[in-house]
């Protein structure tokens, strides 16, 4: 596994695309050979498009500055330049479905940041530490698409990646009901605080489509995989509220949960502290050494000081206590543009590479 694979970033000018390009700088497995965007950006250099609108504190990597942006619709040209692509485009859902399938049918594997294919039965929705076994569904997908190596793997919604990792080690106790509220950062909208002054000193109690995703996508992540694809888990029943709050990065969630077999508080904390997944076993470059961190301090986790834990790839949890209606309640936090978006997609690609599914 010494040879670097060639990778394209579709939607390279957007917030997630920018994150991917910074994370891929000097990556040990992958080398960026294509930056793709809409036809209006095609033919221009990356720095000319983004010099005045770069959204990140991290500087634009030197390798990307003079790269010429290609039209994402130029699949026949791009497929000869890449071994796989990340897809982080901002387009209508049906258009995303079509273009991702078009790349897959052109024998280009797609690691998607988009929601378009998340509920497609044979498309794995991967949190690498949790459901790497779902990669088995790729074979069913290849049969449907009639491909040899082309397929789509999706990353789940950023809103679920604070509380699904915290609940996963507790699945052995059969959680039956989950009530979750997510307090989501401005960057989840693809904007910065400067670009959205209306969010200053404000909270918006609605984010379109987020509550449905927050209630359904965890059931895909926890679902059963067979030769036909992935069947949704039947439990737990999840009720979600998603709220936009005036912080730059970091999605915080409050969770209440009931179990068929109620564990002790000590059992829960021990499971969190000792949980490891396939990325930790493989020591993947972006994998956090400690996936879940529990704080005894009642004032933690805090968005500003804890979102960067494990370079933004760790999940933090705190305030575990018994509840008057549910069995337990707690608070958890994830970095939405690292673990929840670009970093989660890159870790998924690292897993695919290490498991021999990218060639």
Automatic annotation (TrEMBL):
GO biological process assignments: methionine biosynthetic process; threonine biosynthetic process
Alphabetized UniProt keyword annotations: NADP, Oxidoreductase
Top-level lineage group: Bacteria
Classification via Pfam families: Semialdhyde_dh (PF01118), Semialdhyde_dhC (PF02774)
Keyword Oxidoreductase in record: yes
Domain Semialdehyde dehydrogenase NAD-binding residue range list: 6-138
InterPro entries according to UniProt: ASADH-related, Asp_semi-ald_DH_pep-lack, NAD(P)-bd_dom_sf, Semialdehyde_DH_NAD-bd, Semialdhyde_DH_dimer_dom
Active-site residues per Swiss-Prot or TrEMBL entry: 158, 251
A GO molecular-function descriptor: aspartate-semialdehyde dehydrogenase activity
Family: Belongs to the aspartate-semialdehyde dehydrogenase family.
Protein name per its UniProtKB record: Aspartate-semialdehyde dehydrogenase
Origin species: Clostridium cavendishii DSM 21758
């Amino acid at each position: 596994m010494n040879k670097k694979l060639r990778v394209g970033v579709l939607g390279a000018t957007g917030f997630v695309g920018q994150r991917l390009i910074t994370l891929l700088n000097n990556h040990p497995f992958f080398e960026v050979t294509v930056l793709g965007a809409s036809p209006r950006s095609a033919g221009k250099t990356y720095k000319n498009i983004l010099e005045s609108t770069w959204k990140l504190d991290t500087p634009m990597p030197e390798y990307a500055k003079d790269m010429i942006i290609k039209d994402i619709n130029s699949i026949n040209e791009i497929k000869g330049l890449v071994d796989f692509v990340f897809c982080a485009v901002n387009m209508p859902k049906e258009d995303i479905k079509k273009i991702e399938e078009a790349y897959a049918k052109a024998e280009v594997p797609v690691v998607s940041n988009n929601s378009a294919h998340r509920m497609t039965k044979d498309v794995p929705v991967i949190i690498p530490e949790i459901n790497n076994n779902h990669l088995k569904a790729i074979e069913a997908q290849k049969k449907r698409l009639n491909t040899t190596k082309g397929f789509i793997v999706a990353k789940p919604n950023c809103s679920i990646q604070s509380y699904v990792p915290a609940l996963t080690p507790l699945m052995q106790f059969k959680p039956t009901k989950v009530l979750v509220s997510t307090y989501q950062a401005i960057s989840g909208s693809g904007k910065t605080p400067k670009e959205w002054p209306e969010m200053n000193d404000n909270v918006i109690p609605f984010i379109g489509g987020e509550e449905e995703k927050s209630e359904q996508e965890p059931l895909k992540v926890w679902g059963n995989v067979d030769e036909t694809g992935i069947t949704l888990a039947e439990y737990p029943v999840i009720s979600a509220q998603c709220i936009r709050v005036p912080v730059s990065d970091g999605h915080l969630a409050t969770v209440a949960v009931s179990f068929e077999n109620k564990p002790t508080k000590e059992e829960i904390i021990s499971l969190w502290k000792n949980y490891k997944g396939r990325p930790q076993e493989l020591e993947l470059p972006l994998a956090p050494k400690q996936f879940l961190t529990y704080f005894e301090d009642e004032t933690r986790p805090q968005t500003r000081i804890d979102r960067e834990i494990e370079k933004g790839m760790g999940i933090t949890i705190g305030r575990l206590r018994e509840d008057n209606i549910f069995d337990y309640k707690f608070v958890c936090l994830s970095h939405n543009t690292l673990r929840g978006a670009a970093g989660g997609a890159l870790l998924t690609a690292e897993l695919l590479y290490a498991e021999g599914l990218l060639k």
